[in-house]
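Friendly challenge for the regulars: who can give me the structure tokens for this chain first? No prize, just bragging rights.
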Amino acid sequence: MSIRDEPRRGSVSMDPIRVLHVDADSAWTAAVADCLERAAAPIETLSATSASDALERLEHADVDCLVSEYDLPDMDGLALFDAVRAAHDSLPFVLCPGAGSEAVASEAIGAGVTDYVPKSEGAATLRDRLVAAVDTIRARSRRKRQLRAVETAREGISLLDDEGRFVYVNQAYADLYGYEPSTLIGAHWERLYPDEDVATVREEIIPTVMAEGDWFGETTGLRADGTTFVEAHSLSTTDNGDLICTVRDVTDREERKRELERYETIIDALGDPVYTVDSEGRYAFVNDAYAAMTGYEKDEIVGRHISFLLDEPSVERGEDCVRSLLSDDTDARQRTYEITVETSDGERIRCEDNVSLLPLADGRYRGVAGVVRDITERKARERELERYETILEAIPDEVYSLDAAGVITDIIPPINDDVSTTGHRPEELVGEHVSVIMDQDDIDTAESEIEALLGNDDREHASFEMETVTKDGERHPNENHIAALPPDEDGCFRGTVGVLRNIADRKARERELKAQNERLDRFAGIVSHDLRNPLNVAQGHLERVRESGDCDDDDLEAIAWAHDRMAALIETLLTIARERDPDPDTEPVDLAALVTDCWRHVETDDAAVAIETDAVVRADRARLTQLLENLISNAVEHGSTDDARARRDADPDSAAITLTVGDLDEAAADGFFVADDGSGIPAAERDRIFESGYSSDGTGLGLAIVDRIADAHGWTVTATEGADGGARFELTGVDLVDRSRPGDEE
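First reply, four minutes later:
Bragging rights claimed.
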């Protein structure tokens, strides 16, 4: 016969039942929830539409029972059952298929589901079955707790059948008599009593128990080795006539009494206040420290209700704590809660009360013992900490802390953000090494800064620039302000705290400033380069006028053109400088006419030009003029060869170099070329000639300007070898205008 602890048939626990209903059918889910609300037991229904949703809900919510459809969107009900059992082995699981079958039922029962209730049996049947399932599981849980309490009890506990034979003994009971529990099972109780006491037990004690239901007193126990001891002995009957026996060795009661006196002496000597309160909430004992804390004498406190010293909220919290300890739903023997003690002079002291139940007397509550600790200073520190935490949460930057190994221990996103600046939620980063968001080079820099901090007592913090790597793999520049945490009690390094400030905008401004300075440098170079040609023209004609003393109209016209050209160049270059790289202001331009005009106003010495194009291009006239002038000047300046100079010496009428402007072959691309018959450009240098500053002599800006102007138009300029061995520049991607279209301007 075993200990009986089954609930009464038909009884239902009144504790609220939380049910998770997994079904994609919202109408059925609503019908079941409505039916469950009308159950005798309070039931709260949670819902999920898929297995994955249900598993996620189980991670964050306490659930007493799970009801599931078989056909779910992402897996069937039995697969969900397997997943649930892996994490919650005792959670009741009721399979409720919409289209049940014997095969599904057989498989479900074989898998071990708690119950199988097809929807066709109705919501009411489902409600009754799941309530019964939860009640059964809870009853089993209570039995386990009670049995565990019996097994671990210090008192000896046994159960005897109606014939007086042991059907159960706990370890403490068997140890008390010097037997193994298995040896006593089936033995008669007479085995544990001296012969002279058996008759008293049989004729006096057992009849009293049967008549009155219980008995308590002292008897003599007989150990396996033949020795005896005095035992405090209690007997009570169960509903079916079995006997529950509890025994405790009280032979050394006097020793325990002396031990109690020693404990009382120790308690009085403790620095912490200690008290006991009886079952009616009255002080039964206080030590000297408790009396000193309150400002009262001991005898002024003992016998008074706890409300004498505690405010009403503290009394209520204490009563809740006792109820919790007495509840069948917990095995806890101790609780901690906060109280406010009102002293004799009216001071209110915030304390932490560590309370434990006094041993029960015949199963009845006898009171509690408590150790009280003044936490006024701790509360002040907590409030201070809360203020700091509030400040940290209000900082617009990200705050983090690392332990000594570089593992993230805390991270506070910028104010009003739920995720960190790297896209991770804080809980995803805590416990991870900082390398998940930082490259090794930045980690090395940080470690160097930390070493410098630890080695210099005058430095409290350091700053350095680094990049964080986001969850999506992006990189954000940050300024990291770090400080070392206070060392531990042994003086060892505990880690760091840091504030990350995103400096992407600042870096963008720095890049913009750098680009602006580069534009100004280019602007200065272009001004000095492109203004030189018209300035040379003006100076040459002015010098000729001075030498001849004759103010020729051609000279005046050339000087006037040079000044106009310089004014146009200055305005164009200023526009480029102010507007970075403005879009060209395009119009149809007659290429041959513009080449002729440029040739006339560039110092070409004795060079010649051949124009082999009648193309009209869509371009910014001023900037195309600038491009052509630079190509002409470049050819004249760098294209002359020794052979050409020898031919000119032999024939003064021959040209030192000939420049040709013509159309590209249609097979090549839309565009034009500018070529000369000079010395050409070595193949190894053709890719570099458009770089700013590249030149065999001079400023090295002319071809860089050509490249920029072409790029601004969307053209491509390429250097290659001309048909006569000289330099050839091809401009492709040029928008050619059809002369025959009406409305086109020349």
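The domain at 153-255 is CATH 3.30.450.20 (Beta-Lactamase). The chain has a mean pLDDT of 82. Your move, everyone else.
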